[in-house]
């Protein structure tokens, strides 16, 4: 598997469901026990599979920017409805 960017969409029944960046249409489902570190919903990550272990690097700046963009969008939507 090549190095690819994903966003963690959700965790269900011990599996992490990632959406491939940027289109976020393709899913990658990984058992949490096969990941080298814990991640949180919304984290933007790079994933590389080596010998059955998924090596995850959290892209902190991209994650923070994505969260800021979402917060800004939520604020605009709230203000629009007032």
From TrEMBL:
InterPro entries: DUF3006 (IPR021377). This is DUF3006 domain-containing protein. The lineage of its organism: Bacteria, Bacillati, Bacillota, Bacilli, Bacillales.
């Amino acid at each position: 598997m090549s190095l690819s960017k994903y966003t963690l969409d959700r965790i269900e029944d011990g599996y992490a469901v990632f959406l491939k960046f940027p289109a976020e249409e393709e899913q990658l489902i990984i058992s949490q026990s096969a990941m080298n570190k814990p991640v949180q919903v919304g984290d933007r990550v790079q994933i590389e599979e080596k010998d059955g272990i998924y090596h995850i690097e959290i892209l902190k700046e991209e994650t923070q920017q994505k969260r800021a963009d979402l917060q800004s969008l939520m604020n605009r939507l709230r203000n629009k409805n007032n």
